[in-house]
Amino acid sequence: MAEEAGGSGSAKGKEAEIEDMFSHLELNEDELDEVVISAEAAKEYQKAGRWLAIGRVLTSRKFSAEALFAKMKIVWNLSRDPICREASENLFIFQMHCLGDWKKVVHQGPWTFRGWGVLIEDYDGLRNPESVTFDGMYVWAQIHGIPELYRKPAIVDDLSRKIGLVRETQLSPKLFFEGNYVRVRVRIIVAKALLRFVTLNLPDGKKRLMVKYEKIPYYYKHCGLLGHNHEECGDGDWEEKQLQWGSWLLASRRATQPVPAPRRFTPRAPNRGGRGSKGDGDPYRPRKRSSDDAELNKEDDLTDTGTSPIKPPNVSTEVIPEENPLARKLDFADENTATLPEEVQDGGSMDPTVPPLPPPYVKSRDRAKLQKTGTSKNTMASSAASLEEDRRAQ
Q: Which of 245, 242, 195 is nearest to 221 (CA)?
């Protein structure tokens, strides 16, 4: 496992063999011809390649490099997709485009691919990729049960150093996980077993504090090393009591309260009827009130009790109805029978502003017959009048 994580010993051995082979070779002129890179050009190349990182997946299994690149682009979610290149078997180089993306890839994490850990290191672009040592990864660890009296930065820092290289400490973290703990970000050595407990030596006795980890890759529950699960360690047939690094090493998230569903906009029902209809209309439309609902028929409200210096006293509020002009020409001699004037009875108009009645309609067929027989217009009018009398008689 240590050789897989580092790989520096085998790389140095190959380089020594190549150097020894070169020392016995005689090179010709073409092989001695050089390509010169100026100092200014070297600075430009170094500036363009300063956001480089190199990575390795903590596994001995075979996998696709394209699948790794596609997965990590989604997981990292950078401002611009990095340039990924496979340098060797299970060895990859990533070129970021800005400082923020480079810090996220190198200093955040831990990153996993299919449950295996992805080890990321800073890379200058000059060294041989196979000479880079991958010996650790940053993880978030929790130390549970520290007494409040000793929950101090100096004490927590000493306890955290037992786990690994300390990078950040949170004495009062947001409790997204279960338990009473402090949260520390440490760099653990992948060739060493995970630390399960730290001990606090108090005046009244020793207190053992449990250590839990957030989002760590596969680890051996039998020996505590990262890389694969206990079923792949040895023959994989282990009893429960032999699994000294159980699932209790993983931090459990707190059960959150159910969040109420957001209120959704409900469209109003369309108005199926016309204006003022009693059909299915808008339920939120204000309803017209009647005079009874508005209490407009109260005598107190209708009585004018206001006074003014220019207002004549004792003004009567009685409403005098306007006389109907038609009633002027009607003879109300009898209480129940009204006699029309003669001009109205003869077909004339009661009101001079109303035009007289139009002449009776004569069909075009009858008009043609009358014209053929040479009948005058008076005859047509008399026959039309007779037709009208016959119609009235019927």
A: 245
Task: Give the three-class secondary structure for 246.
Answer: coil
- pTM for the whole structure: 0.54
Q: How many helices (H) and strands (E) does the chain have?
A: 12, 10
Residue type at position 55? G
**Ordered DSSP codes for 276-320:** T-SSS--TTSPPPPPTTTTT---HHHHS-----TTSPSS---PPP
Distance CA 192, CA 162 (A): 12
Pairing of strands 205-214, 136-144: antiparallel
**pLDDT band at residue 249, thresholds of 50, 70 and 90?**
confident
Q: What is the pLDDT of residue 338?
A: 47
What is the C-alpha separation between 197 and 190, in angstroms, rounded?
Answer: 17
Tokens 């790389």, residue? 11
Nearest CA among 240, 243, 143, 133 for reference residue 193? 243
CA distances from 185 to 39, 149, 237, 261, 324 (A): 40, 22, 34, 35, 100
